[in-house]
Amino acid sequence: MNIIPIDDPGDARLDPYRNLRHEDVSRRGPLFIAEGRLVVKRLLLSQYSTESVLAEQLRLPELEPLVDQATPVYLVNQKLIADVAGFNFHRGLLACGKRLPFHPMETLDDHCVTDTEGHPPLALATLSLNDLENLGSLLRTAAALGIFNIVLNSQTADPLCRRVLRVSMGAALKMRFFDLADPIGWFETNKQSGNWQTIATTLAADSIRLDDATQGNQRKMIVMGNEGDGLPEAIQQACTIRVKIPMASGIDSLNVAVAGAIALYEFTRGRR
């Protein structure tokens, strides 16, 4: 490995790792940070290139089979990591990845293909979802259920920010992300063409039960909205159908990550 000891917290090579508590979560930078052993390993094995690794001595043996000679491994002590990161960091391992551009929404059909068993594609759309833990949980659930096509608008948090990556256990690194620049326009056009069955998750009184909407052999997109406001009415109306999760009397909503997990499970149950 290309091991480079660093003992100066002001070293410019450490700049991507500074003040991680205050990271930008709106997808503006070309780089992102992976935190902890599992997520760093998944970055090193992923489609993303690794710009550098920041590691304590005890982490070096497990890195050796994964890091190529071109990737610098900055060897530091625990105190230096904490000083640079801006919080009391005990995991001993960080890495800096290089972001790939999201796919344009126009290429969705090109990247979503029928699987080896003949099932039509599935996608998850997260619109204006900005809680990092909820987004990370949804991505982890989607990966577990075999859904790797993720549609996001510009108001959705960065799916590759440190906290989302950590909560998703690195599952975000496996996803194909599609940039939904004009949500209402795309959903309205799709409703006319019938190319995708778009399923709005909502509490609307005229929505149908989730378990009544899982049939049909066509490509489907489950659409989740903001944690507090849900999906805008215009988006709901532009979707093919609106569904709700039946709940006990007196309970009117679920956390978006929980609701999403239930919906994703229902729409993938017949595939397993």
Using brief descriptors, characterize the structure shown.
alpha/beta; Alpha/beta knot; five-stranded mixed sheet; 13 strands; 27% helix
What does this structure look like?
With 272 residues, the chain is of the alpha/beta class. The chain folds into two domains: 2-98, 60s Ribosomal Protein L30, Chain: A (2-Layer Sandwich), CATH 3.30.1330; 103-271, SPOUT methyltransferase, trefoil knot domain (Alpha/beta knot, 3-Layer(aba) Sandwich), CATH 3.40.1280.10. It is 27% helix and 21% strand. It has nine helices and 13 strands. The chain has an eight-stranded parallel β-sheet with strand order 6-9-8-7-12-10-13-11, sandwiched between helices. Strands 1-4-3-5-2 form a five-stranded mixed β-sheet. Helix 5 links the parallel strand 7 and strand 8 (149-152). Helix 5 (132-144) runs parallel beside helix 9. The N and C termini lie far apart (41 Å).
Task: Write a concise synopsis of the structure shown.
Helices cover about 25% and strands about 20% of the residues. It has about 270 residues and is an alpha/beta fold.
Strand content: 15-25%
Structure annotation, total helices: 9
Order of helices and strands: EEHEHEHEEHEHEHEHEEEHEH
Distance linking N and C termini = 41 Å
Q: Assign the CATH class of the largest domain.
A: Alpha Beta
Question: What shape does the CA trace take?
Answer: elongated
Under CATH, the topology of the largest domain can be stated as Alpha/beta knot
Strand order in space, largest sheet: 6-9-8-7-12-10-13-11
What is the number of domains?
A: 2
Low-confidence stretches: none
Whole-angstrom Rg: 21 Å
